[in-house]
Specification:
Elements: E1 5-11, H1 15-26, E2 30-37, H2 44-58, E3 66-68, H3 82-85, H4 107-116, E4 122-126, H5 131-139, E5 147-153, H6 168-171, H7 174-181, E6 187-190, H8 192-195, H9 202-209, H10 214-234, H11 244-251, E7 256-261, E8 263-265, E9 276-278, E10 291-292, E11 299-300, E12 305-311, H12 313-325
Parallel strand pairs: 1-2, 1-4, 2-3, 4-5, 5-6, 6-12
Antiparallel strand pairs: 7-12, 8-9, 10-11
Helix pairs in contact: 1-2, 1-11, 4-5, 5-7, 9-10
The structure holds alpha-D-ribofuranose and calcium ion.
Length: 329
């Protein structure tokens, strides 16, 4: 199988980020150029340690730089999600000492370095707050044309999960999200609208666990903890695997249905701060990706993202299972 996407996975592990790492590390159609880490589900110190532990557990990341990025959001005060991912950010499994250590480069500098050295063939895959990607765009604006596309988990055109309006990754750094959604590069937004449709049931967990690899066992241990907090907070019988939808789509784009929309980030409202305002019905006017820069904020005049509106859940679970099965090859 030929590499279809060279990616930088920018994450805040986080149980679902961890599954995305394990999938991206092993699938032959993906070249994992780097893992960069942001604060989000937990503080940066914890998310960076979690990223190292999971990358080590994959046994496939010996040559993948793992670099810690921004420790704080760009403007707002920090928010974390310990009530969902635990005090460590990845409660449940017990890891031994990681076999790999953090790359000495800052995550933002690593993103810039890899993009500037590339032929414009790198896909950014953020699965946490967009702080690192936004900081890279501000630190070195010349990276924008070098970004092939951004395939992110975040946002929603329906109900939020951290407020009635906002999804966590966007809410945790709305200003960063504004910078990314106005960068002018192709964006694929995997929002809660579809990620809530792929919840890891006991049957799914048992199917993966039956593969027998240490990575399959890790998946099962992580899901056991994740299921408990999701049930407690949202009443779900099984935990939604938000972040792996990005990786699954890169592996098999047919699993998700996309719709072109204008997406803007609410930055001024107290009530709806961090909302992805998605123009589902195309009320917007103006040409694609032109920007109204007359005001303080650049605003897309027309559609600036492909937003996920449906997912084939059975196909997603088959992609996940088949990807974890590669660990037994
Ligand atoms: O809202 C879900 C997102 O927030 C996921 O990426 C999860 O890991 C948290 O970062
Ligand atoms: Ca995440």
């Amino acid at each position: 199988m030929t590499v279809r996407s060279k990616i930088i996975l920018d994450c805040d592990p986080g149980h679902d980020d961890a599954v995305a790492i394990l999938m991206a590390a092993v699938h032959p159609s993906l070249e994992l150029a780097a893992i960069t880490v942001s604060a989000g589900n937990q503080t940066l110190e914890k998310t960076a340690r979690n990223a190292l532990n999971v990358a080590s557990a994959s046994g496939r990341c010996a040559n993948v730089p793992v670099a810690a990025g921004m420790s704080r959001p760009i403007v707002r005060e920090q928010v974390t999600a310990g009530e969902i991912h635990g005090a460590s950010g990845l409660d449940g499994p017990v890891f031994g000492p990681p076999e790999i250590s953090l790359d000495p480069r800052h995550g933002v500098d690593l993103i810039i370095e890899l993009l500037m050295a590339s032929d414009g063939d790198i896909t950014l895959v953020p699965t946490g707050p967009l702080t690192n990607v936004a900081a890279a765009l501000r630190r070195e604006p010349r990276i924008a044309p070098k970004i092939e596309r951004v395939v992110l988990m975040g946002g929603t055109y329906q109900l939020g999960n951290v407020t009635p309006s906002a999804e966590f990754n966007i809410y945790a750094d709305p200003e960063a999200a504004h910078i990314v959604f106005t960068c002018g590069r192709p964006i694929v937004m995997m929002g809660l609208d579809v990620t809530r449709k792929v919840r890891a049931s006991a049957d799914v967990i048992a199917r993966v666990r039956s593969l027998g690899s240490s990575q399959a066992a890790l998946f099962s241990e992580m899901m056991e903890f994740f299921a408990g907090t999701q049930k407690e907070l949202y009443g779900w019988d099984s935990p939604p695997l938000h972040d792996p939808v990005t990786v699954a789509w890169l592996i098999d784009p047919g699993c998700v249905t996309l719709k072109e929309m204008k997406v803007e980030i609410e930055l001024k409202s107290e009530l709806c701060y961090g909302r992805t305002s998605c123009d589902f019905f195309g009320h917007c006017k103006g040409g694609r990706l032109t920007f109204d820069t007359s005001g303080a904020l650049a605003r897309p005049a027309g559609p600036n993202a492909q937003v996920a509106v449906d997912i084939d859940a059975d196909r997603f679970w088959d992609i996940l299972y088949d990807t974890f099965a590669l660990y037994t090859k």
